[in-house]
TrEMBL record:
It comes from the Bacteria. Transmembrane segments: none annotated. Keywords: Transferase. It comes from Streptomyces albus. One of its GO terms (molecular function) is transferase activity. Signal peptide: none annotated. This is Asp-tRNA(Asn)/Glu-tRNA(Gln) amidotransferase GatCAB subunit A. The keyword Transferase applies. InterPro entries: Amidase (IPR000120), Amidase_CS (IPR020556), Amidase_dom (IPR023631), AS_sf (IPR036928).
Amino acid sequence: MQPSDLSLAAAAEAIRTRTLSPVELVDSVLARIEQVEPRLKAYVTVTADAARRAARTAGDEIAAGHYRGPLHGIPMGLKDMIDAEGTATSASSQVRAGHVAAADSTVAARMAAAGAVLLGKTHTHEFAYGLTTPQTHNAWDPDRVAGGSSGGSAVAVAAGAATFALGTDTGGSIRVPAALNGVVGLKPTYGLVPRHGVTSLSWSLDHVGPLTRTVEDAGLVLSALAGHDPRDPASLDMPAGDYWPGDGTDLTGLRVGVPRTYYFDHVDPEVEAAVRQAVEQLRSLGAHPVEVDIPMTRYVQATQWGLMVPEATAYHERTLRAVPDLYQADVRILLEAGELMPAGDYLRAQRSRTLMQQEWARLLEEVDVVAAPTVPVTAVKADEETVTWPDGTVEAVSDAYVRLSAPANITGVPALSVPAGHDAAGLPIGLQLLARPLAERLLLRVGHAYEQTRPARALAPAA
């Protein structure tokens, strides 16, 4: 096993006990990047020299007795929507050509303060406005989509080209690529992680969160990310916390909501079977499955798009008029469509969101977590634009991938995607767990307990 194969928790313990140095770890991960990057294209840019300097600094600090904690000396990727001082934040768009961040975003600053080592910026769908990340290839099958828009971050973690990474999630953009590449993706409660210095797609739906190899790793990263920042108007006024999920697997008394509606409609049979088997695994740990009805399902898609499209267009109003030809066609069309939406439609979407939040709050009084598929189908071929279901229904790929993840963005509840096996083609399947707002500790405890029932996960094949 190479250092690049290690989970964050395992690498952190090796660094803490001086059996592995940050330099050795970073060199190993950079070597993996050189090996897989020509095939997978997870990174916009790799800052190898700066990463090696930061690793040497971390090693010197630790040797001098100044160990900062489990992220100290750990190499990470940063989605190219997130500012890091002195590096470009291109959002994978020609609109941002030549842009260099003048200061760290809040999350980049918190990662630096924790001692994490920045490897570079990972690819996103242009301005995070899409669910495929077309520049990047799936870690398990390069002919298939990576998922998006945090596809570069997910692929880097899945392939050993980053020990962990940060992404953003507006309609599933952390969880979708996590599921399609067999890694863990956490969308925290809305407002728990500040977004100052992060390029916006839709301010009322945007979240920042980690992509990691394990649920334990996600808890370690969230512990360094969470906490109030007044520069983000949506930031919750609460202190940072410890989100380590613990070692236990006893889930006695836990009420697991299993949806009767929505989450298993138009879902691939292999995905459904894997998720239902995961529920049985939770039952074997003491949990009590409870069938539930998901509220207001007919309004999910209209509410998601009714919020996201006008907010995205408002953010891009100036550049859309000044340099429209610099946008990719798919993104430009969506932004232009937002200019045609009546204000009344946006207000109705806001009203729908409020009602949906209220109904989900009632649902999450009946159960502790909801267990469902993250996405209804595994990674499709890169040239496939639609999914055809057995009843003849044809669905756009992006609509299919966002369908099961959007409710958590609309309501702001935390949602975790955990690998739940592979389909017959060897492609990863994701289990999605959702909980009431600010119940991240519970969510991570459940995900970690489930993870302990599974065989140890290997990295995606390097070649």
